[in-house]
Amino acid sequence: MIGMDNEIILFHWNILEIRDDMAIFVGLRHRLDRDVSEPNEVLLNYSFRQSTPIKLFDEQLGHGITYSGRRYQCIGEPSDPHNLIRIAVGILFVSVH
Q1: Strand partners, 71
Q2: pLDDT class for 53, splitting at 50, 70, 90?
Q3: Using CA atoms, how far apart are residues 4 and 9, in angstroms rounded to an integer?
């Protein structure tokens, strides 16, 4: 069983391939310190998360582990309903020329 203190649960997530041999989890994690119930502000309940490189991923169960030892539970299918993941990835991984 995955230890809860070491597990990151991603509700909206994707796998971002950095290179041919390296990929990371990117997604939204529920913030337990917030409980915003206003429909227009509900996204404030989430924060963006990126992982270290993925070591193993069971696509059927949504369980993954990174080389750092962190365990991830990816809920549902890959998704980005509000383009928040795409925006965060664009900001974090923009190439400066």
Answers
A1: 7, 65
A2: very high
A3: 9
Q: For tokens 């529920």, name the residue.
A: 30
pLDDT tens sequence across 6-41: 789 998 899 998 888 899 999 988 766 666 565 565
Helix/strand/coil for 45: helix
How many CB atoms sit inside 10 A of residue 51's CB? 22
Q: Which value, to the nearest 10 degrees, does the dihedral of the CA atoms of residues 79, 85, 89, 91 take? A: 160
SS (H, E, C) 36-59: CCCHHHHHHHEEEEECCCEEEEEC
Take residue 65 and report the two structure tokens written for it: 């582990």
* Residue 85: Cβ within 10 Å count: 23
Q: What does the block give as tokens for 57?
A: 């991923």
Residues 6 or more apart whose CB falls under 8 angstroms from that of 49 comprise: 8, 10, 25, 26, 27, 28, 29
What pLDDT score was predicted for residue 48?
A: 84
